[in-house]
Please model this.
Amino acid sequence: MEEAIAFHDVSIVVGNVTLLDRLSLTLHGGAPTVVIGPNGSGKTTLLRAAMGLITPDIGRVSGVPSRRAIMFQHPVMLRRSVAANLDYALAAAGVARSGRESRLGELLGLVGLDDLAGRPARRLSGGERQRLALARALARDPGVLFLDEPTASLDPAATKGFEDLIGTIVARQIKVVMATHDLGEARRLAGDVVLLHRGRLIESGRAPQFFEAPRTDEARRFLAGELLL
Ligand SMILES: Nc1ncnc2c1ncn2[C@@H]1O[C@H](COP(=O)(O)OP(=O)(O)OP(=O)(O)O)[C@@H](O)[C@H]1O
Ligand SMILES: [Mg+2]
Model:
């Protein structure tokens, strides 16, 4: 990531619902930024705005990089093979036909799906599907990768596999910004943490400080496992 992505007093309003409420925040390069908060707190909206998929009604987002990709909360697979899904993503990313086959093999290897290239994508297990969705996002060769609750429906073993893959991606100098409502996962992966509640930024900062010494009462309660209502 060449430049930090910055939210400047951003509000996003749909009808009479405020999805993001005067949010100011900087997403720096380096270790993953993990966005946490209860259901409906605005995590997906934040990711979509940082990705440039939604324009704020008030304020602005700066530094959105050209090389960026998002893995959506509920990825939809084409009714085709694993390889065809990935080939489609590579074509959509503008990779020329001549370069696609080697890139396809490389990405399937990276996410551990080489043996399943011919399998209909909709027949994959949950964990395999998420890894294919990740490979599709990586087809764009992003400098920043947004992941929206990628392990939410996975069991511990599949979650471990996916988190290890995130480690591989981070080692390739790709900035990861990930939403989760799993605090354990946030502790395992985060360099920085962003806590949202009802579209508002409650707290953000370096992960060790956030987990050891949260500054706000809401963050303390969230970390203690209380329900933020
Ligand atoms: N297009 C829309 N129109 C109206 N309300 C919306 C729209 N998109 C999202 N919302 C509402 O905005 C709030 C924030 O939604 P968002 O999806 O960003 O939350 P989230 O933190 O990702 O939640 P989850 O943990 O359930 O994925 C929710 O109350 C949601 O119902
Ligand atoms: Mg969401």
In short: The mean pLDDT is 96. The pocket of adenosine-5'-triphosphate (ligand 1) is lined by residues 14, 17, 19, 37, 39-45, 73, 181 (CB under 6 Å). The domain at 1-67+142-229 is CATH 3.40.50.300 (Rossmann fold).
